[in-house]
Amino acid sequence: MGGDEAGLVFVNNATTGVNAVLRSLEPALASGDEILVTDHEYNACRNAAEVSASRTGASVATVRVPFPLESPQQAVDAVLAAVSERTRVLLIDAVTSATGLVMPVAEIAAAVEPDVRVLVDAAHAPGMIDFDVAALGASYVTANCHKWMCSAKGAGFLWVRDDRRDDVYHSVISHGYNGGWPGDGGRLHDQFDWTGTQDPSAWLTVPAALAAVEAMHPEGWPGARRAIRALCLTGRGILLDALGIDPPAPDAMIGAIASVPVPPPDDPGTGIFDPLMAALADRHRIQVSVFTWPAPPDRLLRVSAHLYNDESQYRRLAEALVSELRS
Predict the structure, then answer these.
(1) Residue 216 needs a FRET pair 20 to 30 A away by CA distance; which of 51, 134, 229, 272 works?
(2) For residues 297 and 83, what is the distance between their CA atoms, to the nearest angstrom?
(3) For the whole prediction, is pTM greater than 0.85?
(4) Helix and strand tally (H, E) in the chain?
(5) What's the pLDDT tens digit per position in 210-224?
(6) CATH 3.40.640.10 residue spans of the chain
(7) Cis omega before residue 200 (within 30°)?
(8) pLDDT of 281-302, one tens digit each?
(9) How far apart are alpha carbons 156 and 149 in whole angstroms?
(10) Range 220-326: architecture per CATH
(11) Fold classification of 5-206 (topology level)
């Protein structure tokens, strides 16, 4: 991941990492300050920003990043235009969950740090894209290991830049807060390594998961990432051809997940997940996400790719999708 041991700690998931950072930043936030998020932000993490803002008198500002879009520069321009003298924290995805965009985080962070603290929600990034937490230039990076790294669920990490570590605490305060359970990993590890009784088994699977996926491709992890991305782009192309639409994002912004718009339903309903998702699962035995975004009746279908997938699965999905949309 490119981070030093002293700055990298395990958490259960990226949402936990986001909460820990935002809770830690609350003493530095005041009335009139802003936490900036994009309209692509994962709902759970946006909720964490809203709660921290409500506790401190700050507010959450939302910048619209266009989708469809033609280039990463559109995302850069949109975010930087929304940063103001009131902005204290920028919460941004490395890879957006709903729309599957690889965001130009390093370019954005270089333009706003250290005046604005950048918190990167990198839930999908490790194992999917070439990823170096230190090279991003952000203050904080949190991610999951159970996605493309294939560890057991319940393994994630938080990395904190060395100049930010003294003020970061776990959202669960425990022994390490006052040195009551000292370890040898430094202050940040004192806060995170032992927060009470829990099962660390998921964390312990990470080395085995890294080694297992590395062994699945003759070129190791670099080869695996290239193969996964190529398959995702192929799968997206099959769906775009079936739907007769243009790519909603350039290839450069695609990692191993990709979302495509699908025609709105006759009855959009009020649920997050669309009946089309259930139809594909029940009638075609295909597991794929179909959900409302950004608001009804608009909806997206999102595909993923890994080494256990193959092109025929995306062709089968395209046939099933066309069939369901015609029915």
Answers:
(1) 134
(2) 30
(3) yes
(4) 10, 10
(5) 999 999 999 999 999
(6) 5-206
(7) no
(8) 999 999 999 999 998 889 999 9
(9) 10
(10) Alpha-Beta Complex (3.90)
(11) Aspartate Aminotransferase; domain 2 (3.40.640)
